[in-house]
Amino acid sequence: MGNRQSRTRRMTGWVRAVLLTALLGISLWGPGGAGAVELYHIGVGDTLSVTVWEEPKLNGVFTVLPDGMITMPLLGTFRASGYTSESLSRHIARRMSAIFRKAPSVTVTIKGMGNNFFYVSGAVGKPGVVPFNHNIRLLQAIILAGGATMAAKEDSVVLIRNNVPRTLSIEKLDQGKDLANNIRILPQDIIIVPVKTEQIYLMGEVAGPGAYYYNKGMTVMQALIQAHGFTQFASLGSVRIIRKQKDGTKKIVHIDINHIEDEKKTEPKEYLKPGDLIYVPQRMF
């Protein structure tokens, strides 16, 4: 009984730690593996409040310059970008130890963020500038931009960092695959979600006839769902796919929707191809 209670207490403590971590927005599992915590790193344009507890005259508010440097009394100019607030506090204290008899107590607080934002453009709900969060990843970034639209080509998302492009698939991330490609976003990153160029067409007795974006692996039923289904006058047993062949000829594939909807009957899935025309004729009365 004692061992069971001990295990229960340990589990309760672990659950509390996980919940607290989630509330604070800290990742327990970052790139460094289990237990790694991703902290905010100071960037260009940030405003820093520096407090030297033993020497209040050195206190002040400093802006990180475009070259990543700050200038403080007595210390001159030195690099601040790339540090966390805690590590910069220690760095300033070490520099001051050359002036004072011992290293003073220094606290660095980030008062404001400068260029800490990234950009999302293309087929998303809200393209534009997105405020940077120190622990944000690709899929989260796109969600913050309103999510990918139906027009998004999800397997060809481009991330541009330091003018170097990289192509990633958020389609696989949505499926829980290739999670290593759910990379951490950095300030000034540019994310481009391209628009699909391939389409299919629905005509006849469908609720929403017209052109629709093609998705790889799309079936006739999925296409009909995009077109909001068929009308009450549709001849479900006579649906046709009209497909243009490479040699210019047309291939006609007959589909019986009744067989697809009836679980007791079977019909091979017919995967659509870009440019396919799905025609649902009117039934005879």
Main beta-sheet annotation: 5 strands, mixed
Number of strands: 17
End-to-end Cα distance, whole Å, is 76 Å
Q: What is the helix tally?
A: 6
Uncertain residue segments: 1-37
Shape: rod-shaped
Query: What fraction, in percent, of the residue positions are helical?
Result: 10-25%
Here the CATH topology of the largest domain equals: Outer membrane lipoprotein wza fold like
Q: Tell me, what is the CATH class of the largest domain?
A: Alpha Beta
Which CATH architecture of the largest domain is right? Roll
* Assigned CATH superfamily of the largest domain: Outer membrane lipoprotein wza domain like
Describe this structure in a few short sentences:
The chain is of the alpha+beta class and 285 residues long. The protein contains 6 helices and 17 strands.
Describe this structure in words.
By secondary structure, the protein is an alpha+beta fold. The chain has 4 domains: 33 residues, no CATH class; 66 residues, wza like fold (2-Layer Sandwich), CATH 3.30.1950.10; 77 residues, Outer membrane lipoprotein wza domain like (Outer membrane lipoprotein wza fold like); 82 residues, Outer membrane lipoprotein wza fold like (Roll). Helix content is 21%, strand content 28%. The chain is built from 6 helices and 17 strands. The chain has a 5-stranded mixed beta sheet, covered by helices on one side. A 5-stranded mixed beta sheet has the order 14-13-17-15-16, covered by helices on one side. It has a 3-stranded antiparallel beta sheet with strand order 4-3-7. Strand 15 and strand 16 form a beta hairpin.
